[in-house]
Amino acid sequence: MGSENCCIIIEIPPPKVKRVALVKYRGVERGFKIGRGYSLGELKEAGLNKKLAEHLNIPIDPKRKSVYSENVENLKKLLEMIKELVDAKKAKPAKLVTNVQQGSS
Hints:
This protein is mainly alpha-helical. It has 3 helices and 2 strands. The chain has helices at 40-46, 50-55, 69-87; strands at residues 16-18, 32-34.
């Protein structure tokens, strides 16, 4: 179909958070896992506010307080990509396509 080329899709990188250090692992750091969303501190350091992040469909975890530099860098790269697309002269507008079926009466 011709509608495949109408929209530009940007993938939002998933946030990374540390795994919980359990007693049975004797305090050994177990690395990172994919989190529920970015913390408000990470959004603030990247130059985003909560309202704009929600508008861009960036996942937010308001309970998380930690700030990881890798997540901040991912958010900054995402903002740069969005700015480049907005500033591009040949950027195609995004279309909202809804499939409404006509009911037979």
